[in-house]
Amino acid sequence: MNTEIKTNEVQSLTRKGTCIEFFSAYQEHDYDRMCSLFAADAVVNFIPLGDGGIGKVAELGKGLWSALMDCFPDIDNTIDTFEENQDEITCKVVIFGTQAKDFAGITTQGLKFENDHIFVFKFNEEDQITSVTINWDHTSFSQQLGA
Length: 147
Fold this sequence. Notes:
Low-confidence stretches: none
Number of domains: 1
Shape: globular
Strand content: 35-45%
Helix content: 25-40%
Order of helices and strands: HHEEHEEEEH
Largest sheet: 6 strands, mixed
Mean pLDDT: 93
Radius of gyration: 16 Å
Oligomer: single chain
C-alpha cells in the first residue's frame, strides 16, 4: 500500500474520531473537553447569529455551549452523517432537548426542540480543529420553543 494513501487514511480516521469525541463531550455536557479538541486560536461561527456569532472557540463557543447546557439540561445529539473534503469534515447532526430556563430571549415554557444542524470542522496539519462553522434553522428552533 502506498505510504501517502495509508497516511491519508489514518488522518481521516483521526479527524473523524475527533469529531465523534466532540459530540460525545457535548452529550456529556463537558464543554471544557469540547473546547480542548480545538487549536488554541480556533474560531467558531454560529451562522444564524450573524456577526455576533463569530468569535474564539475558547470564549464565544464555550460561553454559548455552557449556556445551552444550563438552559437545556437534557440537551443531546445524534450524528447522522460525515462528509470529508480535504481538511474539512462536515457533520450533519440532530440536536434536541427540553428548555428549563430562559435562553437567548426565549422565555421557557418547558417545550422541547429537535433541530438539524450542520457542523463544518476544519483541521490543521497536526489534526487539531482550527475552526467550526455551525448552521441550523433558527426560526424553527425558536418556534418549537414557543417564541
